[in-house]
Design a protein that fits this description.
By secondary structure, the protein is an all-beta fold. Helices cover 0% and strands 65% of the residues. The termini are far apart. One of its GO terms (cellular component) is cytosol.
């Protein structure tokens, strides 16, 4: 894609820091923003790992609690849980499996 910057790398305390939520991002980037596959490390200890589009979780991804137990795995759209996915309690037991819309289970 001519005229567009594409690179892989780490972004610390920069673009994502401005949102007030993320401490660090490690993954694919385009025009200085997360795009493709990467991991975000949040201030509260959560970790998102998966696909990104326009600097937001979008596509398949997993969100982990600070204790590294899985919190949610499934589809994301524009930063919200959307489509098929499974959420888990902090102890790792399944909480909900099914359809999500706007970040909420249906």
């Amino acid at each position: 894609m001519e005229g567009m910057k594409h690179y892989k790398g780490k972004l610390f305390r920069d673009i994502l820091e401005q949102s007030g939520f993320t401490v660090a991002y490690d993954g694919d980037m385009k025009d200085g923003k997360p795009e493709g596959y990467g991991r975000a490390f949040y201030r509260d200890g959560r970790i998102y790992e998966g696909e990104w589009k326009d600097a937001q979780p979008h596509g398949q991804g997993k969100l982990y609690y600070a204790n590294l137990n899985l919190w949610y795995e499934g589809e994301w759209k524009e930063g919200k849980r959307e489509g098929l996915g499974t959420s888990y309690y902090e102890d790792g037991k399944p909480a909900f499996a099914g359809e999500w819309k706007g970040g909420k289970p249906l």
